[in-house]
């Protein structure tokens, strides 16, 4: 179906003839078909594997299980908000949310500052080997998250990795393991965020810099007063991405769990939902997932509102 | 006729091929899957929900109740002779019959426990092989005093099945069925005694804080920093493959007991072959499951390829389990395990929510190893979390 519409969309110049329509109509209709055709592969998959499961989970989250007997068959019954009530007073969930919030407050700003610094350095007039460094910064993002976490796990293990042997910190212990995860996440995503900011810097009209130079601005002033304000949209965008990513933290702690004794099965909200689902508490896991999605939306919204002030100033 | 079968035993395809060659009319199609807790149980639960489960699947004993609760297991008692159970070890048969309410799987292998120890290093430090847990603690102290980098063993935070084995050795009853009701008692007195014992070793720094089966653990074993591993029969292959450089230096002794002179042992792990709800051919599936786990040729293949230790008494007399093991200095290690298998408490049963119990225990153990809590508190937490999990499954449950 999508192929058909794309084809008819591509030959819009010779639109269907012999119809009493205004001259621009066929081409506009073809354009609309082209839009539908080009969007539909994404839209269908998005609908099937994203929207439909989310709606299903949303419905499930209102059901509870009932049964009779030590091994009786399960039946679903309407439970209203009881799963949500249970989740909100689950101390493990509250602790996990607190943990990722603490993580986010430190890791997200640190990572964005690193990304912004890299982007500005690459964009500066005195930068050398730009292609090489751009690629180097970005390479960690191309490493699958699980592989990256395994490699870092080795580096953090005393007796095996140089990091743990050089720095006398128990990277996998109770106190530091959260920040070891922060190091992995920063390593993975700083280059990715740098690329978004750097592309935005590249799109800035060079005349602006020339004007600044004529006005006597040095490189520092250009970066702070001109470049950063001009790319604030991409800084905000990477901020929102990072907040969402933080709340969904899963792969890194899940991988490190097999080598650290300090990461619980409810370490992050996503791990908690995963643990609940693997214990067949699907309805409860659905409720937790929904709370998490709502919290992510609220936090992203608050962040956008806060940054809007910066934009308006 | 085609039967589908999910299993993760390495090399089980040879046994399946043998069955297929001998039974041209009942062909088994093997699907090699990841280990149960590495995703297969989840897939199996989902398959049961979707109604496209295989005819047969490998399920570990501690997860059988969970699948029975999901109505996933078929009662195959009418497909078997009434004396089928007599050939299996009592403790294994009890796991698949749920108090004589049917036969829900065929026992495949068991994991009787014993103590692997470094014979060379025991001699070097001049310590005796401990017979009781009290002696084990004394050895732990003695070797650590001589070399502070050496510890008797590690406390495995996530191997909660290991801890369950130790608790059962002391007579724990984590779960019992009382009519329609479940009685749950994870922090009972025997378990509490085990927890206090290990907490004491942790507090004194006598056991290592590292994950079992990790690279760090392998290295500590290879470097002679850990002297023992109280583990199941399948652990013999783990050591041989993870620390090949220590070949010939290990030996095996019965696991320490709580009282001097008693022979109590425990079981860690082991699987069954279950016929699943939707099978169109439960009779043939049951015959295959029985053959797979009792036929001498099949048992030999399962042992040689996958290291499985038979769940049948006759299986332990097979010639390949009478061979000396070079890795263990020529010792007949399977004799020690055979003795252990006779001394496993048959009345320790699993709750249907072991996934959550294990997760909660592991979380609590992690906190205890981190110094924030104690193993006893971990038991209390696991007791509460298990009751919550069972109530989420709408089971009638009572703390006992």
Largest interface: A-B, 36 and 47 residues
The CATH superfamily of the largest domain in chain B bears the name Periplasmic binding protein-like II
Structural class of the secondary elements of chain A?
Answer: mainly alpha
| Global mean pLDDT of chain B | 95
* CATH homologous superfamily title of the largest domain in chain A: MetI-like
Question: What is the highest CATH level, the class of the largest domain in chain A?
Answer: Mainly Alpha
CATH topology of the largest domain in chain B: D-Maltodextrin-Binding Protein, domain 2
How many helices of chain B? The count is: 15
> How are the strands ordered across the major sheet of chain B?
2-1-3-12-4
Can you walk me through this structure?
The complex is a heterodimer of chains A (313) and B (400). Chain A is mainly alpha-helical and 313 residues long. Chain A contains 14 helices and 2 strands. A two-stranded antiparallel sheet of chain A has the order 1-2. In chain A, helix 4 (91-123) runs antiparallel to helix 11, helix 6 (145-156) crosses helix 8 (177-202) and helix 11 runs antiparallel to helix 14 (282-312). Chain A is globular, with a radius of gyration of 26 Å. With 400 residues, chain B is α/β, with parallel strands linked by helices. Chain B has 2 domains: 2-110 and 270-317, 3-Layer(aba) Sandwich (D-Maltodextrin-Binding Protein, domain 2); 113-266 and 347-399, Periplasmic binding protein-like II (D-Maltodextrin-Binding Protein, domain 2), CATH 3.40.190. The longest helix of chain B has 18 residues, at 375-392. Chain A: InterPro entries: ABC_transporter_permease (IPR051393), MetI-like (IPR000515), MetI-like_sf (IPR035906). Chain A: Belongs to the binding-protein-dependent transport system permease family.
């Amino acid at each position: 179906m999508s192929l058909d519409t794309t084809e008819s969309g591509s030959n819009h110049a010779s639109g269907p003839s012999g119809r009493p329509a205004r001259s621009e109509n066929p081409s506009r209709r073809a354009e609309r078909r082209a839009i539908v055709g080009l969007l539909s592969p994404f839209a269908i998959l998005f609908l099937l594997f994203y929207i439909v499961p989310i709606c299903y989970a949303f419905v499930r989250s209102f059901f509870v299980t009932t049964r009779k007997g030590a091994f009786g068959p399960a039946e679903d019954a309407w439970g209203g908000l009881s799963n949500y009530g249970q989740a909100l007073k689950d101390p493990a969930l509250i602790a996990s949310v607190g943990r990722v919030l603490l993580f986010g407050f430190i890791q997200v700003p640190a990572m964005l500052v690193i990304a912004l610094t890299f982007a500005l350095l690459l964009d500066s007039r005195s930068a050398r080997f730009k292609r090489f460094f751009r690629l180097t910064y970005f390479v960690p993002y191309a490493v699958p998250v699980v592989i990256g976490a395994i490699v870092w796990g080795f580096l953090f293990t005393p007796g095996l990795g140089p990091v743990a042997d050089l720095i006398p910190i128990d990277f996998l212990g109770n106190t530091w393991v959260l920040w070891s995860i922060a190091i992995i996440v920063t390593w993975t995503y700083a280059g990715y965020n740098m690329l978004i900011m750097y592309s935005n810097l590249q799109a800035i009209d060079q005349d602006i810099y020339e004007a600044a130079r004529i006005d006597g601005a040095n490189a520092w002033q250009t970066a702070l007063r001109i470049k950063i304000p001009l790319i604030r949209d991409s800084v905000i965008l990477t901020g929102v991405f990072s907040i969402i990513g933080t709340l969904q933290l899963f792969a890194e702690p899940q991988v490190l769990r097999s080598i650290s004794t300090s990461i619980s099965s409810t370490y992050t909200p996503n791990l908690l939902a995963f643990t609940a689902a693997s214990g067949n508490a699907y309805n409860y896991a659905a409720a937790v997932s929904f709370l998490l999605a709502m919290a992510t939306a609220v936090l992203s919204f608050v962040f956008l509102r806060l940054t809007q002030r910066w934009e308006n100033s | 006729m085609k039967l589908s079968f999910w299993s993760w035993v390495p090399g089980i395809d040879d046994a399946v091929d043998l069955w297929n060659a001998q039974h041209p009319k009942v062909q088994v199609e093997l699907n090699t899957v990841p280990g149960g807790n590495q995703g297969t149980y989840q897939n199996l639960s989902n398959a049961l929900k979707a109604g496209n489960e295989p005819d047969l699947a490998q399920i570990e004993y501690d997860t059988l109740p969970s699948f029975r609760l999901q109505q996933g297991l078929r009662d195959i008692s009418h497909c078997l002779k009434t004396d089928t159970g007599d050939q299996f070890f009592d403790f294994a048969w009890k796991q698949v019959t749920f108090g004589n309410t049917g036969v829900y799987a065929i026992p495949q292998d068991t994991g009787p426990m014993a103590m692997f120890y470094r014979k060379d290093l025991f001699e070097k430090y001049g310590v005796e092989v401990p017979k009781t847990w009290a002696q084990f603690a004394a050895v732990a102290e003695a070797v650590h005093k001589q070399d502070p980098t050496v510890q008797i063993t590690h406390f495995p935070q996530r191997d909660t099945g290991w801890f369950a084995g130790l608790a059962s050795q002391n007579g724990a009853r984590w779960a019992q069925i009382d009519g329609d009701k479940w009685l749950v008692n994870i922090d009972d007195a025997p378990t509490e005694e085990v927890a206090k014992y290990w907490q004491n070793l942790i507090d004194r720094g006598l056991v290592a804080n590292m994950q079992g089966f990790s690279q760090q653990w392998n290295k500590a074993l290879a470097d002679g920093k850990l002297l023992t591993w109280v583990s199941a029969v399948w652990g013999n292959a783990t050591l041989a493959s993870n620390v090949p450089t220590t070949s010939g230096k290990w030996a095996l002794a019965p696991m320490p007991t709580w009282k001097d002179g008693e022979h109590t042992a425990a079981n860690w792990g082991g699987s069954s072959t279950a016929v699943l709800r939707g099978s169109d051919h439960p009779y043939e599936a049951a015959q295959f499951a029985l053959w797979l786990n009792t036929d001498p040729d099949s048992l030999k293949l399962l042992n040689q390829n996958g290291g499985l230790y038979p769940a049948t008494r006759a299986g332990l007399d097979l010639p390949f389990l009478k061979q000396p093991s070079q890795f263990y200095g020529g010792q007949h290690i399977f004799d020690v395990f055979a003795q252990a298998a006779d001394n496993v408490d048959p009345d320790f049963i699993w709750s249907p929510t072991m996934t959550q119990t294990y997760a909660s225990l592991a979380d609590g153990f992690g906190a205890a190893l981190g110094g924030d809590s104690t193993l006893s508190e971990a038991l209390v937490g696991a007791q509460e979390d298990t009751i919550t999990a069972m109530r989420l499954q709408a089971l009638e449950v009572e703390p006992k």
